[in-house]
């Protein structure tokens, strides 16, 4: 059993080969006569076996404390500097690069939307082609027609929702995690609306036909028609899931409980499918008998593949286990993961995985954590901020604890860049994927790291070493949200003062929702196209 990774190398990037950009930016300054980091890591706060710097502040006898080529500074607001910012060190902003961008990747989103609406139109057309002209002639028949149409739309949306919950890798790579999450929310609200509208229209239409009260007719439908009790249960589950998905409710529920309730969405398909088959008036025609079974087969196959086959294969091949847990300061710690054939793991910097640590008290729950260092053949690292009971217990795990993982997920990667330069913005524990991304970013990348206090900054040593290696720049914005510097950060003037060529960069954002929303609003005011914005929504 592994007792820690004494032979592991540091996060030094072995995949990067210098290009003309790297040489160009190296020539912008005269390199010091001696590399301040050197070949020998003399960090007095070194974590055993990893060679990772842990000391955030320079020690008193640091010979490079006044190094004029430092690439990281804590910035504060300035009323005299033209940029509006004053640095604690003499590092200067880079020279803008006006060369044309790399070719953008586009078209997947449009094609996916067209396919979605084509399927939606097909499901609605089943009613249109099987309804004779003149059938809808009074209020009762109009209500029943509206009920059948909304039922068809609700059934189709349910299948699409489950397809997006399947976690099949090809769907996420094709569409993107950000769009999948946004569509999942939108479709969830729409699904609930159409299902409830289906219930109201059908009950009211039958009440008009039978000349009875709506409540009486509703009770008659539930107690006499086949599969109606299960359909009622499915509707209640759907409404509960919609309610707990509201941000106000979601932030108050423990993540484990919220996720468990959310998983009951699969019961909606199981409970509702019998009702669709038994009483669906537009599911038995010549074309409908092909369309709906084919859609069902597609969704079930995706669920089995994404939820069962892929995770089982991943864990049998790699046999993940905890190698070491290392404190990063405060309530933040890193978990190093060992495993077999890690060089074959199809993970990239910026992605996340769902981790289930097989301890006595935590085996039953999984959490999404981003990789905080680019994956390599020796170890994986994820960095956790303890905010609840489960995450606090993770800090006490022992080496050798088995791990069940799913993924990797997300397209928050360097491969999605459309420009030659990048801006990385992190807040709080959002620094984990940002720090990993820095290993894959081009020269002259700028990192903006937002934190409430200096002691909340993690990975400072690693960020500064990577900045030296990659000709990058790190800017720390520290203080409360009402302090002048942080308040200025997400204004057009403040952002341009830090990054004059921001509109010509890809921007990667990861942090709490408030930080991401404020940054996106500012960037759009500066005419940064959506195609250059890459968001890790922090809510997976």
Report on the architecture of this protein:
Helices cover 43% and strands 14% of the residues. By secondary structure, it is of the alpha/beta class. It has a seven-stranded mixed β-sheet with strand order 2-1-11-10-9-12-13, with helices on both faces. Strands 3-4-7 form a three-stranded antiparallel β-sheet. Strands 6-5-8 form a three-stranded antiparallel β-sheet.
Strand and helix layout:
Layout: H1 20-26, E1 72-77, E2 85-87, H2 108-129, H3 139-164, H4 169-175, H5 177-210, H6 214-224, H7 228-244, H8 247-250, H9 255-263, H10 265-279, H11 288-318, E3 321-329, E4 332-338, E5 352-357, E6 367-370, E7 380-385, H12 389-394, E8 403-409, E9 422-427, H13 431-438, E10 446-451, H14 460-470, E11 473-478, H15 484-489, H16 492-498, E12 506-510, H17 513-525, E13 533-536
Parallel strand pairs: 1-11, 9-10, 9-12, 10-11, 12-13
Antiparallel strand pairs: 1-2, 3-4, 4-7, 5-6, 5-8
Summarize the structure.
This protein is an alpha/beta fold and 540 residues long.
């Amino acid at each position: 059993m592994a007792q820690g990774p004494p032979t592991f190398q540091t996060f030094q990037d072995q995949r990067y080969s210098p290009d003309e950009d790297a040489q160009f930016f190296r020539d912008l300054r005269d390199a010091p006569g001696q590399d301040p980091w050197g070949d020998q890591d003399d960090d007095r706060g070194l974590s055993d076996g990893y060679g990772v710097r842990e000391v955030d502040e320079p020690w008193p006898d640091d010979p490079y404390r006044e190094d004029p080529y430092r690439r990281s500074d804590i910035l504060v607001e300035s009323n005299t500097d033209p940029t509006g910012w004053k640095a604690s060190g003499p590092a200067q902003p880079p020279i803008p690069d006006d060369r044309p961008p790399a070719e953008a990747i586009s078209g997947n989103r449009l094609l996916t939307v067209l396919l979605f609406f084509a399927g939606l139109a097909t499901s609605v057309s089943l009613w249109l082609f099987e309804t004779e002209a003149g059938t809808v002639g009074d209020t009762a028949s109009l209500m029943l027609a509206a009920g059948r149409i909304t039922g068809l739309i609700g059934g189709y949306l349910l299948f699409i929702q489950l397809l997006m919950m399947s976690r099949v890798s090809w769907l996420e790579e094709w569409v993107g995690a950000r769009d999948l999450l946004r569509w999942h929310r939108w479709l969830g609200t729409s699904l609930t609306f159409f299902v409830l509208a289906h219930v109201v229209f059908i009950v009211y239409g039958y009440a008009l036909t039978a000349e009875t009260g709506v409540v009486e007719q509703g009770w008659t439908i539930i107690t006499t028609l086949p599969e109606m009790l299960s359909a009622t249960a499915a509707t209640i589950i759907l409404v509960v899931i919609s309610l707990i998905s509201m941000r106000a409710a979601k932030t108050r529920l423990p993540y484990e409980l919220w996720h468990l309730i959310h998983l009951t969405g699969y019961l909606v398909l199981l409970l509702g499918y019998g009702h669709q088959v038994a009483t669906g008036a537009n599911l038995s025609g010549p074309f409908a008998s092909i369309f709906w079974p084919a859609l069902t087969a597609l969704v079930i196959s995706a669920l089995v593949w994404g939820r069962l086959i892929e995770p089982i294969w991943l864990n049998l091949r790699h046999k993940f286990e905890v190698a070491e847990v290392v404190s990063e300061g405060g309530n933040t710690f890193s978990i190093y993961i060992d495993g077999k054939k890690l060089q074959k793991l199809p993970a990239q910097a910026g992605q996340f995985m769902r981790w289930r640590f097989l301890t006595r008290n935590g085996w039953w729950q999984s959490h999404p954590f981003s990789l905080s260092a680019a994956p390599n053949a020796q170890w994986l690292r994820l960095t956790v901020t303890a905010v609840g009971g489960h995450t606090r217990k993770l800090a006490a795990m022992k080496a050798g604890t088995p791990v069940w993982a799913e993924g990797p997920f997300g397209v928050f990667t360097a491969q999605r860049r459309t420009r030659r330069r990048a801006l990385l913005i992190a807040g709080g524990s959002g620094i984990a994927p940002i720090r990993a991304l820095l290993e894959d970013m081009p020269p002259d990348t700028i990192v903006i790291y937002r934190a409430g206090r200096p002691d909340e900054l993690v990975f400072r040593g690693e960020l500064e070493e990577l900045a030296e290696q990659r000709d990058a720049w790190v800017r720390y914005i520290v203080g409360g949200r009402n302090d002048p510097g942080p308040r200025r950060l997400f204004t057009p003037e403040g952002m341009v003062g830090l990054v004059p060529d921001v509109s010509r960069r890809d921007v990667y954002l990861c942090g709490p929702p408030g930080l991401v929303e404020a940054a996106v609003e500012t960037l759009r005011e500066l005419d940064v196209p959506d195609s250059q914005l890459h968001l890790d929504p922090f809510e997976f």
